[in-house]
Amino acid sequence: MASTYTTNNGVEKPGIGEQAGTWGTTANRDYDLIDQSLDGSATVTLTTAGTSGSPNDLTISDGAVSNGRNRFIRFADSGDLGATAFVRLVPNDAQKIILVRNNLSGSRSINLFQGTYSSSNDYTLMNGEDAILVFNGGGSGAIVFRALQQISLTALHLDDSQIITLGTSDDLSIQHNGNNSIITNATGDLILRTSVGGAFLVQNNNGTENIAVFFEDGGCNLFYNNTNTFGTNANGVNVIVGGLYIGGTLRAASTGSWRFQVATATQIADISNAVNTTNKAQGTTIWDSTNHRLMVSNGSATNSLWYVADGSASVTPA
């Protein structure tokens, strides 16, 4: 009875009554093959990118040490291959789990497949990527897919300048470079969502101070030193503390309008009225609804003068 070979790793199984006196040689070679399949590591240097119809074969040879049997395979080159590389595991009925790394130059990707090439059955290994790949040994229609696609962890630690990438083309990346934390979005919009009825908060590092708060179906508030100073509401914007300081030119849109705080002449002249006691500052502007004129304060004190905007008169609260 002739020798046969295991399907997945090509380890020889001598037939009954065969290889009298040479079993030791065969057994030792088989041990080497098993050792290679369990923990073997190899660098495969590609000399050409290949194509889907004429790929670079990664072979598991029956009864002989071969690259395709290794547990870890690093793909390299001696120079930019000029295109995406194609690598095929042979034979197409071998079921293998292999850790692979793409170290090709020129930012080239690798299409890894088994059997007849199909873009729906291959795995594209991005440049610089490590992956644990499963080759299902399904013959001409074999499928290659990534293992551990869903992982549950209690913690994930990465050293400085290590990058977490998300998306087929590494569209989103997160990293800490030792000085700053950086989120980079390379495709489309960066969208932040909160729970229904919840708020989105930006806080200091220990969560004791707010920097900004955004409410669903509501306004948003900006803080200065944990004090709410500016917000939005159904009527527009609200300067809550201090005043609105403009270094350039303030203009209304052609279809817009200006709105000022409105007070009567009596209220403007009353030192105890809210127009003089609340948020009054130099440059505060109100509309005198009695005399139909714009009034500007020259200070923050309750008795600071209100000047008519054209400088024609003034009112001293008393």
Give me a quick take on this structure.
The protein has 318 residues and is mainly beta. The protein contains three helices and 24 strands. It folds into four domains: 143 residues, no CATH class; 38 residues, no CATH class; 41 residues, no CATH class; 55 residues, no CATH class.
Features:
5-stranded mixed beta sheet, 4 domains, 318 residues, mainly beta, single chain, 3 helices, 5-stranded antiparallel beta sheet
The count of helical stretches stands at 3
Q: How would you sum up the global shape?
A: rod-shaped
Name the quaternary structure: single chain
- Spatial order of the strands forming the largest sheet: 3-5-7-10-11
Structural class: mainly beta
Q: Can you summarize the main beta sheet?
A: 5 strands, mixed
How much of the residues is beta strand, in percent? 25-35%
Mean pLDDT: 92
Alpha-carbon Rg, integer: 37 Å
Percentage of residues in helical conformation: under 10%
Report the uncertain regions: none
Topology as a string of helices (H) and strands (E): EEHEEEEEEEEEEEEEEEEEEHHEEEE
Distance between the termini: 119 Å
Whole-number count of domains:
4
Number of strands: 24
